[in-house]
Amino acid sequence: MSILNDFIAINANGIYCKYGDFYLDPQQPVQTAVISHAHADHAVSGNKDVYCTRPTREFMHLRYHRSAAQVFNIVGYNQPFTIKGVTITFVSAGHMLGSAMVLMEYEGSSYLYTGDYKIQPDATCDPIEWVNADVLITESTFADPKIIHPDPVEEIKKLNGIKSNILLGAYGLGKSQRLIRMINDHAPQKKVLVHHKIMPINQIYEQAGIKLGKHQMYGRKLMKVQDEFIYIVPPFTFNSYIKATGVKRLFASGWKNLQVNKEDTLFISDHVDWNDILEAVKRVNPKQVWTLHGNGYHLKAHLGKDILVKLLN
Hints:
This protein is α/β, with parallel strands linked by helices. The chain is built from eight helices and 18 strands. The strands form three sheets. A seven-stranded mixed β-sheet has the order 7-8-9-10-11-17-18, covered by helices on one side. A six-stranded mixed β-sheet has the order 1-2-3-4-5-6. The protein has a five-stranded parallel β-sheet with strand order 14-13-15-12-16.
């Protein structure tokens, strides 16, 4: 069957599939939501029926409590289900614990919505799994030939050369847990302290069988001693410590503008870079590529001779 050019469309509530009457990662509460992962820009509260993985539900409950959703429909990876004639399968996205790409099949054509995804190895979540689809609907946050993410292990090893205490900014869900594990694996002499807002998230990881390694709750007295402490804090706390003394300030991100000093950088991203997106196109082998969440112009220029590229935003 032919690809339906209007299979999904973007409206005020988010990404809508009219053929199944559901939204993918809606930005406003809706009747039926298929949620790829628990980051707040993909998982809002107040939806009536939510389809997601078990870890995504746990994280949403932690953040939103009773308003997380009226009904959660928990689905594991590679377990097809149907919403009004559209067959949907969650496939591991490798982005964070519980993250899923969403394979949608309808009238003989298939559409793979990536949500956020990552190819780089990550011991704190399932690795990405590849499936073929007629249409690849990919995030394009870093879809620029100039953006190539460095090896995350080599990045984290930079911490070994910093002997002072470190104030390390990181997003609380997903990135912080990855960093804790990487520090334990590749800078084991460091002592990891964690902001109290991050600790409940860590507990969900541990309950899911993910071993993060040694870490403890932050204590003010501890950081007064220079003993190679790394204090991992979410962005709102990191920004409030702008005048902190006796520490090296770093922010773990793929974004250049979030690097905070000239001497040291920590480029660790949980998104695909240019080469990773091209690898995704190779593995999925789509007839068309539709782009979201970024600039798809570079992809259109690069792939346009062989594959139809459509920019959805």
